[in-house]
Design a protein that fits this description.
Strand content: 5-15%
Length: about 375
């Protein structure tokens, strides 16, 4: 997940947050200022409740950051790369690159998060007892202890992408000797919990607890979707492990002059090739961008003889690149959602190929066919 706003770096790790965090921040502050604190500690001014509520929301997200940071630091200690941490609607996401080296490493990386939340809950509880003379501060710390305890317990639910799902996967990995089998089995267990949450949410909805029902059902749906994504991602990594980009790329690549008009291109170039994407170059031969056939076709007919390819090209600086020897699974993980576009393959500054999602899908189909379905056994 790409952070909407970058906050900075901590222990060499990029920290950011998604726009959805603003909604939850306001919700937490409002709940504390108008519900929890006035009920537990009556007689305070509205300003005091709102200051305490805002402080509670900030500290709560600091606790979430500590939870995710523990994952990231332990993962890095176990040889994995950490692209960053993003705080968002459902808490936080540590963007880890690569795979754990063993089932034990995965269990350690997953388990340290809930342990951190439990530790924070104990610290907050101790501080609440120590500040009992100030009822508002003590109650706020008590609330933080409770939510961190709840956060740790919720993350132990055995469903992806929660830590409990990864812990369960590590157990099945250890027993079967295959990470893919471990993930596959853990996803099936997680689906049961996801469907259970959806059923509970619907029951709450039809018995009058509309807001609670919608949230519980939505979280169940999210866990169901995340489990399927985890399984698909793991399958792709397994099938493409140690497979170089050169195995999937299309070569040679047809490049066209960027000064051609769109009309000239559609009339004389496009009919001669089966490609849907073309790198374009300037008079010196330097690549300047990339055009997509679908974008050019949508240009109005009366403008095609006036507009040049350079007017519709995606700048070359925005086009993802790779090299023939890069691991294909690593490339997909590195680019993430950016892989929905074409990737140019360079060998020592020479354009030697192009990779598309269709190329990868074709290679996956072949390798899955050759594996005979063994990846899910």
């Amino acid at each position: 997940m790409t952070p909407t706003i970058r906050l900075g770096r901590l222990f060499g790790i990029d920290i950011g947050f998604n726009w959805s965090l603003v909604f939850i921040f306001v919700l937490i502050a409002w709940t504390l200022a108008t519900g929890v604190l006035p009920q537990d500690v009556p007689g305070q001014g509205a300003g005091a409740y709102w200051v305490a509520g805002a402080a509670g929301a900030i500290v709560f997200y600091a606790c979430l950051l500590a939870h995710e940071l523990s994952h990231a630091l332990v993962a890095r200690r176990n040889g994995m790369k950490v692209a960053g941490i993003t705080l968002w609607l459902f808490g936080g996401v540590s963007q880890l690159e690569g795979e754990p080296k063993s089932a034990g490493a995965e269990a350690l990386i997953a388990g340290v998060g809930p342990l951190t939340s439990f530790a924070i809950a104990l610290i907050a509880l101790g501080m609440a007892l120590a500040t009992s003379a100030n009822a508002l501060v003590s109650d706020l710390l008590g609330w933080l202890a409770f939510v961190n305890l709840a956060l740790g317990l919720f993350n132990l639910v055995p469903a992806f992408p929660l830590d409990g799902g990864r812990l369960l996967s590590s157990v099945f990995w250890w027993r079967s000797g295959s990470r893919l089998r471990g993930v596959h089995t853990a996803v099936r267990v997680g689906r049961l919990f996801a469907f259970l949450m959806i059923a509970i949410g619907l029951l709450e909805l039809f018995t009058g607890a509309v807001v609670d029902g919608i949230w519980i059902a939505f979280i169940g749906w999210f866990l169901l979707s995340a489990g399927s994504s985890e399984e698909a991602g793991t399958t792709i990594k397994t099938l493409l492990k140690s497979v170089p980009v050169s195995a999937a790329m299309t070569s040679p690549v047809v490049t066209v002059p960027d000064w051609l008009t769109i009309g000239q291109f559609l009339e004389s170039v496009a009919p001669q090739h089966r490609f849907t994407t073309y790198p374009v170059h300037d008079p010196s031969g330097k690549l300047t961008g990339m055009v997509r056939l679908s974008d050019l076709i949508r240009v109005q007919s009366d403008e095609r003889d006036r507009k040049r390819l350079s007017d519709s090209a995606r700048p070359i600086s925005q086009v993802p690149v790779t090299r023939p020897g890069e691991d294909l699974a690593a490339l997909i993980e590195r680019l993430g959602t950016a892989f929905d576009q074409r990737v140019l393959v360079f060998d020592q500054d020479q354009l030697v190929g192009i990779v598309s999602p269709a190329d990868v899908a074709r290679l996956l189909a072949v390798r899955q066919s050759l594996s005979g379905g063994a990846t899910h056994s």
